[in-house]
Amino acid sequence: MNRLEQSLLSVLQPWCQAPGWLLAFSGGLDSTVLLHLLAGLRRHHALPPLRALHVGHGLQAVAAQWPEHCAAVCAQLGVPFRSVAVQVAEGASIERAARQARYAALAAELAPGEVLLTAQHGDDQVETVLFRLLRGAGVRGLAGMPVQRAFASGHLLRPLLGCTRGELGRYASEHQLRWVEDPSNADTRLSRNYLRHAVLPSLREHWPALDGNLQRTARQLREADELLGELAEQDLASARLAPESPWQALPSLLLAPLRGLSEARQRNALRHFLAPLTLLPDERHWAGWCSLRDAQASARPIWRLHGGELHRSDERLWWLSGDWLQQPAAGLPWQHQAPVLELPGNGRLRWSGEAPSGSLRVAYRRGGESLVHPQRGRRDLKRLLNEARIPVFARDRLPLLYAGSELLAVAALPGYDRVGGEGTQLLWEPPTSDVGLSW
User: Fold this and answer.
1) Is the per-residue pLDDT at 370 higher than 50?
2) pTM (2 decimals)?
């Protein structure tokens, strides 16, 4: 067993009980070597079922032939193969858009508990660290690519990070492997390629230990990032108390515990909280956090970030995205008192108990509404919402149940969410706050 096989098997060992392995197979040198290594190892070791997926981006004509090549390589090695085509969104960075589309396709293919194997190697890690340094990344970015992380419903594993491009090339030559060459890899207009072809060779000439030094720096910064994460978890513990409300599934934090931290620890805690939800803000955008934190209690401050917004209501921070950023569609009749009523852009309603009779409809607050409680008489809805401390962002989304012009009940308003004040309860399942990040 050569060094590459030994290194690979060592990294793969903890993942040998996974229900399956999925290889991201581009057909290039790196993934071809990884596929060949895996096919060889499974002849002598008990490994999970392996299959390969090729993702076609449709960005260049020559790529149309790659799925056929990949299928032939997999057939020769006895590895199940599938190819999917994706649409790359237009934008400023075609590299980022292609990466997002590729990883979205891989995530859709990955079954629960499975491991996605990708073929990034040590040279890729060096390029990543230097690229992020030039873009002004912080500790987390400069930690480079992790060997493994949670991904979709399983995990992502990069088993070749301890190997070099040169080692992979020598292995491919020794075993007479065939692979495809992506012509875009030579296009130095792309940032990564410019670093690879024009910058790194000169740096390596002057600093021969560059690769090892950058990889060691990345490992040290990853350890520092882990320590910062542990500190953030401690700081967030008291801020993560769940509210008792139908929207408690929304990511939220109490503001008071954060206010008691230093500025640096506030930012660290918020980075940790926001990381699964959005692209993290750069240095200039942290002014939005200060404005959100320091606004008057009567204000409605919002910190707008990539794909979502952080709201403040009643001394609590709420992350809103997806349907929560759109006005729900107009009200609609509740035909025949069906058990469940889907609310376009606003979750669903259902009954707890026997549905009331008569013609009913659901609408949303416009101002001036009032309703009658059997024991409390007629009450102004706006005052009731204030008394119940309903978050401001939710008030215009609360489903209002009408019979004709009479307001019967208000979903999620304690004491007023039952028809007639008792008996049948109106239950609202609000929309979730979608979590969608670039891969």
Assistant:
1) yes
2) 0.81
